[in-house]
Amino acid sequence: xxxxxxxxxxxxxxxxxxxxxxxxxxxxxxxxxxxxxxxxxxxxxxxxxxxxxxxxxxxxxxxxxxxxxxxxxxxxxxxx
Amino acid sequence: xxxxxxxxxxxxxxxxxxxxxxxxxxxxxxxxxxxxxxxxxxxxxxxxxxxxxxxxxxxxxxxxxxxxxxxxxxxxxxxx
Amino acid sequence: xxxxxxxxxxxxxxxxxxxxxxxxxxxxxxxxxxxxxxxxxxxxxxxxxxxxxxxxxxxxxxxxxxxxxxxxxxxxxxxxxxxxxxxxxxxxxxxxxxxxxxxxxxxxxxxxxxxxxxxxxxxxxxxxxxxxxxxxxxxxxxxxxxxxxxxxxxxxxx
Amino acid sequence: xxxxxxxxxxxxxxxxxxxxxxxxxxxxxxxxxxxxxxxxxxxxxxxxxxxxxxxxxxxxxxxxxxxxxxxxxxxxxxxxxxxxxxxxxxxxxxxxxxxxxxxxxxxxxxxxxxxxxxxxxxxxxxxxxxxxxxxxxxxxxxxxxxxxxxxxxxxxxx
Lengths: 80, 80, 158, 158
Description:
Chain A has 80 residues and is of the alpha+beta class.
C-alpha cells in the first residue's frame, strides 16, 4: 500500500487531498500515467507541469515505488 | 588660502591633522608633489598610495585648486 | 555550522533571530539577510491586481527536509558559521513577513552569495504555494515565475 | 526613494530600522540587508592575530556625502523603494555591529544586487579607517584589501 498526497491547485482541481492505493505500479512515472488515465479532471490536471516527491524528496519518473511509500504530487512551488 | 586635512595612518606618520596654506599651487597633483618634497617623513608618507579629496569629493591630480577649498589626503579606506 | 530552520504560522522577531544567529561567535564578521514581505499587488498575465491577503500552503514534513537540504548545500559551497531560515504558512496580511534567511560568515561575499543561493533554490524546490485573496473575495493560486527557475539554474551552471 | 543615512557612535536597532524602512509601503516585497560585525581576529600578512577592540575614524562631512552618492548611484541602477545605511564610528568591542545596509524593492534580485553594490562601493570609497587595538595594548591601522578593490571594480565592468 502507498499513500498519495495532492497539494495546492492540483488538489483543488482533483478534489482529493489524499488517498491510499492497495496496488500500485513499479515506478513513479507509471503511477502518474495511471492517475492521468482516470479521466475527468485527472487527465487535464496531469497534463500541466506537476512535480513529484517520494518520501518527501523530489523524485523523477524512474524512481521505484515500494510498499509504505508516501508519494506527493504538486504544482511548481511558489513560496519565498 | 586652502585648508588641508590628513587622516588615519597618514596623519599619524606626518604628525599633522590639519594646516592652512596661504599660497598653493594650481592643481591637486602639484600640491601633493609640493608636500612630498618637504622632506623627513613627508616624502615616504606620500610614496604610499594616498587618496585625495577636494571639498569632500574624491579628486584626481588634475583637479584645480581655488581659494577657500578644503583638501583631504588619506590612505585607502577600510570601513564597512 | 549552527542551523535554525522553522516553518510556522507565527511572526518572527528579526532582532532576536539576528542576535541568536551571531551570539558568542566572534569569528562572524558578516551577516546577510533576506526578508520577503506580502506585497499589495501581483502581476497576473498582463495586468497588475490588488490583493487583500495571501495564504501559504505547504507540504508538512517535506518543507523542513527541503529547507535543511538547501542549507546543507549552501554550507558545502561557502564557509558559513550560522544559517537561519524561517518560513511562515497560513494567512498573511499585506506587509507581513513571509520568509527570513540569515547567513553568517567571516566575510561578506560568502554571506551574500549563500543568502541569495538559499532564496533562489527555496523559490523552486521548497514545497510552499501561495494563494491570493482579492478584495472582491475571489481567490487564485499564484503561478510560478520563469525568472525564478532561471535564478535557481545559474547556481548549477557555476 | 526613501533614504536614511547616518554616521554615529551609538548602536542601532535592527528591528526598528527594518520596520522604518518598509513601513506603510505595500509595494515592497523584498528587503535585503548586510550587517557588518567586529570580528575577533584579522589577517596580518601571513598571520592571524586576536584583536581587543576596533576604532573607526572617519572624515566628518565627507562620509555622509560619499554615502549619499553611493546610495543615489544604486537607485539609478535598480528600482528601489527605500535604502538605509548606518555606519558607526568610534571604539567598538568584539561582536558589535559596524555597518548596516538595508535595501527595499518589489523583487529580491534588485534588493540583493543594490545591497551588495552599496557595500562594495562603500568599502572602497567611503572615508572610514579601522584601527585595531591588540590584547597587549598595541595598535595598528588595518590595511586595505585587494579583494575589496576587485569587488568594487566588477560593478564598473557590468
